[in-house]
Design a protein that fits this description.
The chain is of the alpha/beta class. Helices cover 43% and strands 23% of the residues. It has helices at 3-14, 20-23, 27-37, 54-61, 73-86, 122-132, 149-158, 177-184, 204-214, 216-224, 227-242; strands at residues 44-48, 65-70, 91-94, 107-113, 133-144, 188-196, 199-201, 245-246, 249-252, 255-263.
Length: 264
């Protein structure tokens, strides 16, 4: 499978469901990112793989001139609806993180929250981050740790999925400092910190109901599986989250890496 075909599928998969419900589970991470980047009034800000606007809207509310771009047309359409509801003036475009539809050095700030990590060509996506950010501009990335809760969740899902095409980068690799330094260190002076967007729920069943209805990759996989295989996937997903049960319910750590950079 060529990467273009893969990205066409990704655009449909990520748009399959009301992603804003999933974003609500990661507010602490979005606040962390925007707080570290400290938007200033009138700054040109690009949020890549913007989803339904969680980071883009936060930056706009703090005065930045924000553009959001995402591969999934359905997510962009929903983000436009939500922006209108909140009275926010945010430009929202359909576009590919590996070939951004913007000029060189067009933006003062470039961000991506758990998004650019899923582009299959990591080096090409990384090069685009540097290309569109002006010299002296700022970069902010949120990526899931490969050995954290989300990394383990994706491993649970992998046994029910076909293998990725040869040469496609592994998304969790973006959660390791050395790998990000390798990709971006030539263009940016980088600093790293960690955080945890713990997922809280009453039960594994509650997590399943949320993700199977609202998180595109889980929803799409569940819809494609049939019979006993589908039942096994559902139970495996529930059991995985039940392994994080405490006296207060499900408390699943979701460790993330926050990368902040300054364009050289």
């Amino acid at each position: 499978m060529a990467f273009e075909e893969l990205k066409e599928r990704q655009a449909v998969i990520w748009g399959n469901g009301p992603f804003e419900r999933i974003s609500e589970t990661s507010t602490i991470a979005y606040d962390d990112l925007v707080g570290r980047l400290a938007p200033e009034h009138g700054e040109r800000w690009l949020d890549i793989a913007c989803g339904t606007g969680a980071v883009a809207f936060r930056a706009a509310k703090r005065g930045a001139d924000v553009t959001g771009v995402d591969l999934a047309p359905a997510l962009v359409a929903r983000a436009r609806q939500l922006a209108a509801q909140e009275g926010l003036d945010v430009q929202l475009d359909v576009g590919d993180a590996e070939q951004l539809p913007y000029g060189n050095a067009d933006f003062d700030v470039v961000s991506s929250s758990f998004g650019v990590m899923f582009a299959p060509d990591h080096q090409r996506a990384a090069s685009e981050l540097g290309r569109v950010c002006r010299p002296g501009g700022r970069l902010g990335l949120l990526t899931w740790r490969p050995d954290g809760g989300v990394g383990a969740m994706f491993k649970t899902m992998q046994q029910f999925q076909p293998p990725p095409p040869e040469g496609a980068g592994s998304p969790p690799a973006w959660g390791e400092e050395a790998y990000v330094e390798q990709l971006l260190g030539g263009d940016f002076e980088l600093e790293f910190s960690e955080g945890d967007a713990t997922l809280r729920a009453e039960s594994g069943r509650e997590v399943w109901e949320l993700f199977s209805s609202s998180f595109g990759p889980v929803k799409t996989l569940n819809e494609k599986l049939e019979g006993a295989r589908r039942d096994t996937f559902e139970q495996a997903f529930i059991d995985f989250h039940e392994s994080f049960r405490t006296d207060g319910g499900i408390r699943m750590p979701r460790e993330y890496l926050l990368t902040v950079g300054r364009r050289r």
